[in-house]
């Protein structure tokens, strides 16, 4: 078992399973965040945040979530270094455009930039709500970030850029994860590629619309 997990295929499998777990998290996170747009009193969003703060979720699911992130990042580094070692020199004449997408060739960089975004994002909401515990109205905290004068516009822009980077990372990551768990025949590849694009557009589009809505209409 341990030799399988340290093999190339084992590492890809761990990477895929942790990635698919994060895919699910993003969907739940987007659904809860969409409450920010549907109720300007903030009650709906705060009720969702309250639910997520229940001890069973906070102490049961959150460690799994952060563990999933850490495993995904560590294995991304290991696999990238391994691939570079296996092919240290680029081909003399490369024309990869036809056989691979830009996203697929830049997954590591895109993932790194998404990580920078997540670090900033945790400082905005997770730290004051969960670590410092001094927030009584989560909706107001989120709304203030995007509406406070010119800094509100800057953060709106940063969140839009973050969502675009995330979308590009997911566009390739989604079907690549399924491929690594064995669903890679011709028919499934085409279907999963399409599903991956749809998923990426929904997640990215959703996370783009929310800060824009709060900045311009809330
Ligand atoms: C419109 C954009 C977003 C808004 C308004 C938003 C809002 C929030 C809020 C309010 C929290 C704190 C929840 C709590 O601790 O009670 C949170 C946590 C978190 N967010 Fe976001 N988020 C956004 C986008 C994203 C994106 C794009 C990602 C991932 C790439 C992400 C990843 C996380 C993670 C990992 C946590 C910590 C775990 C948790 O508390 O559930 N968020 N977000």
Radius of gyration: 19 Å
Strand % is: under 5%
Ligands present: protoporphyrin IX containing FE
Residue stretches low in confidence (pLDDT < 50, at least 5 long) are none
CATH architecture: Up-down Bundle
What distance separates the N and C termini?
53 Å
Largest sheet: none
Count of helical regions: 9
Number of domains: 1
Keywords:
218 residues, mainly alpha, 0% strand, globular, binds protoporphyrin IX containing FE
In short:
The chain contains nine helices and no strands. It has 218 residues and is an all-alpha fold. Protoporphyrin IX containing FE is lined by residues 29, 33, 49, 52-53, 65, 114, 118, 121-122, 125-126, 129-130, 138, 142, 159, 162-163, 166, 207, 210-211.
Fold and architecture overview:
Helix content is 83%, strand content 0%. With 218 residues, the protein is an all-alpha fold. The N and C termini lie far apart (53 Å). The chain binds protoporphyrin IX containing FE. The site of protoporphyrin IX containing FE (HEM) has 23 residues, from helix 2, helix 3, helix 6, helix 7 and helix 8.
């Amino acid at each position: 078992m341990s030799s399988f997990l340290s093999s190339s295929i084992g590492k890809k499998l761990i990477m895929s399973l942790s990635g698919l777990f994060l895919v699910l998290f993003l969907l739940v996170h987007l659904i809860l965040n969409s409450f920010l747009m549907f109720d300007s009193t903030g009650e709906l969003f705060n009720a969702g945040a309250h639910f997520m703060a229940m001890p069973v979720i906070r102490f049961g699911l959150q460690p799994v979530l952060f563990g999933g992130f850490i495993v995904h990042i560590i294995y991304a580094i290991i696999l990238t270094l391994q691939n570079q070692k296996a092919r240290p020199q680029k081909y003399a004449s490369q024309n990869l455009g036809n056989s691979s997408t830009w996203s697929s060739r830049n997954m590591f960089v895109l993932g790194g930039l998404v990580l920078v975004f997540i670090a900033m994002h945790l400082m905005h909401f997770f730290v004051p709500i969960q670590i410092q515990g001094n927030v009584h109205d989560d909706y107001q905290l989120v709304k203030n970030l995007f509406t406070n004068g010119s800094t509100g516009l800057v953060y709106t822009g940063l969140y839009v850029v973050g969502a675009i980077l995330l979308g590009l990372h997911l566009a390739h990551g989604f079907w690549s994860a399924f491929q690594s768990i064995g669903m890679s025949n011709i028919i499934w590849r085409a279907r999963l590629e399409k599903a991956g694009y749809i998923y990426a557009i929904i997640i990215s589009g959703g996370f783009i619309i929310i800060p824009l809505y709060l900045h311009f209409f809330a």
